[in-house]
Amino acid sequence: MSSKSIKLAKRVSTARPARARLPVDQVVLGNCLTELARLPAASIDLVFADPPYNLQLAGDLLRPNNTRVDGVDQAWDKFSSLADYDRFTHAWLAECRRILKPDGAAWLIGSYHNVFRLGAALQDQGFWILNDVIWRKTNPMPNFRGRRFTNAHETLIWAAHSARSRYTFNYEAMKALNDDIQMRSDWLFPICSGPERLKDDGGRKAHPTQKPEALLHRLVLASTNRGDIILDPFFGTGTTGAVARRLGRHWIGIEQDPDYAKAARERIGRVEPLSASALETARSKRAEPRIPFGTIIELGMLQPGMTLFDPSAVIRAEVKADGTLSCRGAQGSIHKLGAHVQGLSACNGWTFWHYHSGGALQPIDLLREQARHHLGLAPVPQ
Hints:
This protein is of the alpha/beta class. The protein is built from 12 helices and 14 strands.
């Protein structure tokens, strides 16, 4: 990074340009520090950043047949020192945290060259790290020199604006995407190749580090909602914008290279957004209106004096008029009594306790859903 860029990074923290209106669904051509400083505070739902990796290559990388590997050797990935890189990282991360909403979050991706510095800088800026996710590549580039392990993964860091943030996590959607198994933090995707890989007029890669759309699809679906605004300060050829447009999200891309920006605009212009019905995802129970068990009693769905059972019908509890249960001399809420009779510290009483209906045992959670419909807090099932 040049001394001129370092001075710019220092200057934006003391003398900010006039704030601009949010350039939603646009590619902004310019220096990321300058353009981030123009954006209003607390206006962005999610930041996805694929910053320079600072590879610091000492020379050309050659294959065994002596052909040159088309790696990252552009000026934007070169910094004079690690301290120079750290100053730049802290500068753009500070701006990203300023423009994020209090309940917003950020995803950063990096390799072993820079990801540890990114993680430390995130924590220094006040972000709260939620997960590190390993993107394991199905088709990584081999280690041609045979002196190290094949570098077959990159690391993503997911961080909330702060420890108090009520960040978005579409847990049920991720579980559904993974055949009803809880999504893990190791993701298997191929690197960007084939028709998805953008080429320039000479048939070469339009961008050396273009990320696969599948990777962005998962993280956008996991951590945003329809209509949210996603900002990418290192937009490149626009993978973030293409995925955001397809999934019904808004986007802002900042890119300093005119050729990359042009390719991104053309690429995103070809994207067909999915229909609203196609974008419906599995609903989170945490986001649904709260229904106390006492409401089930008040609505007459269960009567005081009725018996509830555990799933195997071995344990019995009596329903009380105040919405508590009693069993074996103990009395408490559906959750506390459920934990007590099992000798556990916690219990989800809605799924533990069952009632007789139609000759079979049914979880009382079904009554909670019926209560939401009865009270007009949920759409009536078709």
